[in-house]
Write a structure and sequence with these properties.
By secondary structure, this protein is mainly alpha-helical. The protein has six helices and two strands; from the N terminus they run H-H-H-H-H-E-E-H.
Amino acid sequence: MEQNNTFDLKKITAIVLILLVAVISFTVIAPWAASPDTHTHAIEQTEEKVGTVMTLSGGAAATSATLSLLPGDMCTPIAEQLAELAKYFLLILSALYLEKFMITITGYITFSFLIPLACLILCAALVWNKKSLKVIAGKIAIIGLVIYLIVPASVKLSDMIYDAQSERIESTITEYNELEIDGDSEDGFFNEFTTITTDTVDRVTAFIESLMESLAVMIVASCIVPILVFVLLVWMVKTIFGNPFVNN
């Protein structure tokens, strides 16, 4: 009888501690993980990329609009290509804003829902002595932590790629700021008799090439890397734990 009482006391103590962890996760860790102040560096890096993308997108759109004002069809293909590149920058911009929102949302989801849920399931496992529930609780907790780590991991890898190619991107911005579209006309103004100079064509062509290189870097850093990190972590979870809701 005394042995059973001791066993029950240990079980009750364990349940109380687990519930305490759930409460701390929900009331303390979740607000901390969801606070922008906790992720200041990651948010600043993302905002810096947003500013770069907006500059490059605006440069492509502005140059396209200027070329489209020239008479004739000689510059039409170049203007259309620049306008198409501006659409891809919009895609990157959307991915960056999503990343910015996910930085705080993933922490809130993990520590407000998944960790407390895992704790409650673990308490139920102790009450009914169900090993399968313990396994499910552990898997939910691990999956929650993986979800929380996805964004910081992808941001870190993106920053490494972005920093390695930052000179290329800054050079493209410099080319845009120094880009001048000159035309040949008798009165010095753009009109129906204006023709674009060869030097201007070369400068615009070089700008497009630099813009495409910068676009490729931004797509890899802001779109492909987060997807690969997500796929890798999901694959690791599936490989290690299998289906988290299969009874063992």
